[in-house]
Design a protein that fits this description.
With 472 residues, this protein is α/β, with parallel strands linked by helices.
């Protein structure tokens, strides 16, 4: 399938509306003695975080400033996620609160965008139940946000654009990023895999890879601005390049990025086990800047459930990949995703998942109780286990994994690790926090001026979820 690149003309049209918004914002500032404020909230995956950075980039160019507090904002936008039901419920809850805010601030503009509204039934629900929402647009209309927002402000009526398309890539949308030393770079969009529980291919469209030169240019620009850690992002990064008309795969791209001067660390996510080639494993092993960290979603250890999930690998094949990765890269940090309580899962199936956890000994896992998504094949399957049984299994799995996490972290005692300093620790304001090459969180005492720098830390106190250490 050919990738649609937003044409220069299409982006020029968006820029025309950015200029119009800017003029309008300038008039607002003269009249009110202050700049219009926008508040953005992001739900879901890193891809959404990256999209929000683009939304903020466009808003910033249009003259908006930002506030962390929705109550102070003139424009509130929620970039939503459709992967799990609780993320949707949170957005509906937020919209309920904004309804009251809008009664006292009638000029407030409320927008909902992203994966959740790309589903027609959700869009309808928002329009019926939350008719104070002014603007709704889907993932494919991101680049048109300036025009849609301008129309909303001028026409004073709800504007909706959830056009379904195979999707597009715009290389021109400005990005406003939060962190300078680390940056996420999208290398592809969409997914072709159609795992039966997942809504992503329906709301984000098919796989579209960016051209390598565009990715390289973006990374070089980031490096020139002080970024040293690059995380390559895509729903399934290791199928990168399959839709391009040049001969390149993900391993080739990694080698190219590894050669960019100024890049110190390269991470990537997410990888699908069925596309994890030997070539990629050797590339990870041989390229010094590629972090020795791999997130490899297992989802289930039962072959029956893996088949029901349409994952295209068996437990045995998955374990063979892990064995190979561990053999070639013994220091690898492994993480995974697990779904507990998939329809048709029995306790015997669940036990198979536990066995894989105990065999692989992941450094950490992201585990979820299955969330039914309307429109996916799995939503039509029946459950074997009761809610209570599923929750008990989930708790059992956490117990097993928590112990493994602790044991894996204890192995770090007295090791010297190089850490990229993120800043003040989220859990202890008196400490700094950073990450090792393998992605482990390290807390230590130090001066805030170390933010963005690489320091050597001796690990003195490994804990279950993080490591504590001393600057050396
Ligand atoms: S690989 Fe499967 S789980 Fe991941 S985005 Fe694609 S369909 Fe969803």
């Amino acid at each position: 399938m050919a990738t649609t690149i937003i044409t220069k003309e299409q982006w020029a049209e968006s820029e025309r509306f950015i200029a119009k918004l800017k003029e309008d914002n300038a008039r607002f500032a003269i009249k009110n003695g202050r700049t219009r404020l926008a508040h953005t909230e992001t739900y879901g995956c890193q891809q959404n975080v990256n999209d929000t950075e683009r939304i903020r980039g466009m808003l910033s160019e249009a003259g908006f400033e930002f506030t962390d507090d929705a109550e102070n904002a003139d424009f509130v936008i929620y970039n939503t996620c459709a992967v799990r039901e609780n993320a949707e419920q949170k957005v509906f809850g937020r919209l309920g609160i904004l309804k009251h805010l809008k009664e006292t601030h009638p000029d407030l503009i409320v927008a909902v965008c992203g994966c959740m509204v790309q589903q027609e039934h959700i869009c309808e629900k928002i329009r019926k139940v939350h008719n104070h929402v002014d603007l709704i647009f889907g993932t494919h209309a991101l680049y048109r946000m300036p025009e849609l927002l301008y129309r909303t402000m001028q026409e004073k009526k709800t504007v909706v654009d959830i056009t379904d398309s195979d999707g597009s890539i715009s290389e021109d949308i400005p990005i406003l990023r939060d962190k300078e030393e680390k940056a996420w770079v999208s290398i592809m969009y969409g997914c072709n895999n159609f795992c039966t529980y997942c809504i992503v291919p329906y709301v984000r469209g098919r796989e579209r890879s960016r051209k390598p030169q565009d990715i390289i240019n973006e990374i070089k620009e980031l490096v020139a601005g002080g970024t040293t850690e690059i995380s390559l992002l895509g729903q399934n990064v290791n199928s990168y390049g399959k839709d391009l008309d040049i001969d390149i795969d993900f391993a080739d791209l990694l080698r190219i990025v590894n050669d960019i001067e100024g890049v110190k660390r390269i991470r990537f996510m997410t990888s699908h086990p069925k596309d994890l080639s030997d070539k990629l494993i050797y590339t990870m092993r041989d390229c010094d800047k590629i972090c020795k960290q791999l997130h490899l979603p297992l989802q289930s250890g039962s072959d029956k459930i893996l088949k029901e999930m349409n994952r295209h690998y068996t437990k045995e094949q998955y374990i063979a990949i892990v064995d190979k990765v561990k053999k070639e890269i013994p220091e690898i940090t492994l993480t995974t995703d697990i779904i507990v309580g998939f329809p048709t899962e029995t306790t015997e199936d669940f036990e198979e998942t536990l066995k894989v956890l105990e065999y692989v000994r992941y450094d950490s896992i992201f585990s979820f109780i299955y969330s039914r998504r309307e429109g996916t094949p799995a939503s039509k399957l029946d459950f074997v286990l009761s809610d209570d049984e599923i929750h008990k299994n989930f708790d059992r799995m956490l117990q097993v994994q928590n112990q493994i996490c602790l044991e894996k972290n204890l192995e770090y005692k007295d090791r010297i690790e190089e850490v990229l300093v993120d800043g003040v620790s989220k859990t202890d304001k008196n400490m700094l926090s950073g990450r090792t090459d393998g992605g482990k969180i390290v807390n230590f005492t130090g001066d805030e001026s170390l933010k963005g720098k690489y320091v050597k830390i001796k690990i003195t106190n490994p804990k279950q979820w993080s490591l504590e250490g001393e600057l050396i």
